[in-house]
Write a structure and sequence with these properties.
The structure is a homodimer.
Chain A (H helix, E strand, L loop, with lengths): L2 E4 L8 H12 L14 H4 L2 H12 L13 H8 L4 E6 L8 H11 L8 E3 L10 E4 L2 H4 L5 E5 L11 E3 L2 H8 L4
Parallel strand pairs in A: 1-2, 1-4, 2-3, 4-5, 5-6
Chain lengths: ~180, ~180
């Protein structure tokens, strides 16, 4: 069985959506929801506001209730019939996220064994045939075939095979009827 | 640079020693310290007592104050001049250990970047030239060269290159003067 490794934030989990909700509801901002889907928050926000976002990401509880990306659960469940599925998230950047992330995966992806979950930093350590990730910094050092999952911060990136959503992951990786 | 990945429990950390202290001080036992160095606690202890050990391993705080193995810090520091060092621990088995393990590494191995720390389950996911580990279940699925670090539970295992302590790691991996 080939091994397919999935990133968590902005691939399985709609992390950007939760952050946008915070910006729209709690920050003083001129942006609309549509504006905030066009680039990274790092590029769009004032450095002071982006600093606040970083602090929110670093705080306990942030990762506990992130919405699941549309179609992710059903597609991953079907993929697990054809691939050895691993989930690899750069949790080491946010040590307060460990338990939240572990519980989130248990809640939404309970069919993934704990043996197949990886909290890492640099993803060059991942031994897998495929990696689906929204960050080129993760895909570049990866030794297998990397697939870029579209996110606001990577809209202008070229040079990677790209999927826009879970329907496209299903299209690319599952047998056609 | 070749990549050398190190396991944590019973390789960097003297986990067995902490468990033996608990058995000798808190359990009703006929064993001496020497006896408890001759086999795994799973084999030596009554199932009820071993169940208690499992609960201790699962509880928050257990991993926070484990002693460091003799020579580990100095040797890993010297190895990091010659190898890309990663630390990979099967933390997913003990979700309450995440923060303890992260803080333990920051305290004793602060020269290892967070990007080079991996909390995983199955170590077949580790992409590395070498892995030093005390468990054959981790070394067998590993794709690179595995080295068995001697521990009470693996004394009778054959078929692996073996190191007994950090002096022997140094001998094997560092250039001789």
């Amino acid at each position: 069985m080939l091994r397919l490794t999935l990133d968590m934030d902005d691939v399985l989990a709609d992390t950007h959506e939760k952050l946008i909700d915070i910006v729209l509801n709690e920050f003083d901002t001129i942006y609309s929801r549509e504006d905030l889907m066009k680039d990274s928050l790092r590029n769009l926000l004032h450095p002071k506001q982006y600093g606040k976002i970083r602090n929110i990401l670093l705080s306990e509880g942030f990762f506990a209730d992130i919405p699941v990306k549309k179609g992710a659960v059903e597609t991953v469940r079907r993929l697990s019939d054809y691939y050895e599925i691993y989930i690899a998230t750069a949790a080491m950047e946010f040590p307060n996220s460990f338990v939240d992330k572990y519980n989130w995966l248990k809640k939404h992806f309970d069919f993934i064994d704990w043996k197949n979950i990886v909290f890492c930093g640099d993803k060059s350590i991942i031994n897998s045939d495929y990696l689906i990730d929204d960050h080129t910094k993760n895909l570049i050092p990866f030794k297998g075939t990397g697939i870029l999952f579209t996110a606001p911060h990577n809209l202008n990136v070229t040079g990677f095979q790209r999927v826009d959503n879970w329907d496209e992951v299903s299209e690319l990786f599952l047998p056609h009827r």
